[in-house]
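Lab meeting prep.
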Amino acid sequence: MDDTQEILRRYHQHQIEEEKEMLLENAELITSFKQMFSEKGITFNDNNFNYVDAIGVVASYPNIVEHLCTGFSKDKEGLIEFKLLNELYENRLPAKGFLYAPNFMLMANPYFRRGFHPNANFAPRFIDLFWKYRNPDVSTLISLDYDRVRINVDNIMYFEEDTWYGAQFNKEIKTITDGIVKLRPPLDIDSNLLDLFFDDTYSLHIKWKTERDRGKKIFEAEEFKTEKITVMMDGKEYHPSRYVHSEFDLGSGCFEHFDGAIHFYTKEEYELIRDSDSNYNSKNNFQIKGGTLKLFKMTGIININTWIEFTSHFFSGNPLIFEYFEGKYPDNIADMIVALRNYNNK
């Protein structure tokens, strides 16, 4: 066993021991939660509880949120009015991504987390921005983690310090030429280093389209990860891609609709679409549909700065969105690429 394997083995063992310790420490809390559900005619066992260091003590059960919560319902896309959630539950900043009830905490959808992994921390800084955003002219909706809640209701949080780069952009949206932009990391840089600095991003597809009969300009952006990034759903493996759709009103000069989702592609669909573009379905007989999970939606008067900020952070860790808005990579990424090229050319 080499040093790396030994480090990983010890880390994994530490996680197992920490989980046992934290579940034992919260045994009384877990028993109380079981009792609450038994009164609803639902039996919980120990397998319904686990400890995640980035979250806390978690209770898992299909549609547990629907069993626990009243006073709100999901729309046809599985989203909930965020204003209503804030009226029913406590939005206790800086606990981004959580809403407090007396004996549990609701959480944002796990696809907002790093690497789309349910046990990771929330990717910076979209959820942070969304939790703080207040604008009476904008309706905001969010997707929750409907199968899990945190049950240790306290302010002990796992925070990450992370930096994202503010994007300056041509605010004359109506002057942007319709068409498709496709961005990829440099092809001459070692793939392992690209994974590190580009967060496993394979490409970013952007499309602008003007619909003059409606007086709208449509923006779409879809991010494709490398083939090693997959998620499991219903026993099947899919390639996830983050997707943004926005509508800019040419008359008011503001965005009026803005939503984000995760698309799920089979291996065949992924291999076809990642090297194509947003017009694939209009040019080919084989139609790529994929699955979709809506994660958030904003409607109303959304100014351009807000749209830029939320779009940038939704594509967290991906320098290609910065490149699109700014015309260059962030300085630290650009310096890294230059240094690597200089080293390779020695």
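Slide two material, second protein:
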Amino acid sequence: MSPLEIHDKADVDKLERLTRISIVEGSFAQAHMTLAGVGSVFITKFALMLGAGPMAFGLLAAFGQLSLLFQPLGSLLTRRATSRKAFVVNWAMAGRLLVLIYGILPFLLPSERALQVFLILFLLSAAAQSMSANAWMAWIGEMVPTEVRGRFIARRSRILLLAG
């Protein structure tokens, strides 16, 4: 049933389940952003360990804003996707899994090269997550009825604020 229409107990249960899943996923997203997002102290320290200078830090700071340019692409791809849910999950997972590569870069590449690859991976990760965030809004808009959407997002935001 889509969009979800609240008419009976089963529909309320589906919305509650969606809320729980969204809160759990959002909590992981908050943790990810704290550890590996733009402005993270861990990312800053890692970049320092790779020998980052002012230019690299300028790029890291700019990548958060630059990644927003990928949201229109995410919107176009979301319209063509057969499942918004799958689109969100796949792009969010891709963006978050890229950070796993960061830790092995110093062992695979010389430090200057590792820094360059890290910056590219960081931008790709931020762009993928930006596209998934855009698609998430479309998916939630499709799943949560208009009359309860504000409460849904407010409740989720309160809990994620605490998780952050």
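Talking points for slide two:
The chain has a mean pLDDT of 89.
The two ends are 33 Å apart (CA to CA).
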